[in-house]
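Sample entry was shown:
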Amino acid sequence: MPEIIKQYPKAQLISVEKLSDMEYQKWMWREMFGGYIGALSILESENKNPNKRYLHFNKSKEYLTTGYGEYEIKDNIITHITQNSRYVF
């Protein structure tokens, strides 16, 4: 069970950028969440990948869960960088 580090009841995915050489057709589903407003949680793995963090963004019945990565909060902007993507909330 992951540990919830921080929750935001209302957040907007401002942008998502492809960083890897992953084939665009496999990566592009992430872009459909751009502009969405929903609940955002920062989570930390306790068992499978201890101390690794990821984000879960939920809008109604649709959701996005990122891969593990590093995040930064600056001026109310959350930037999360994974192996394949950069997410800005």
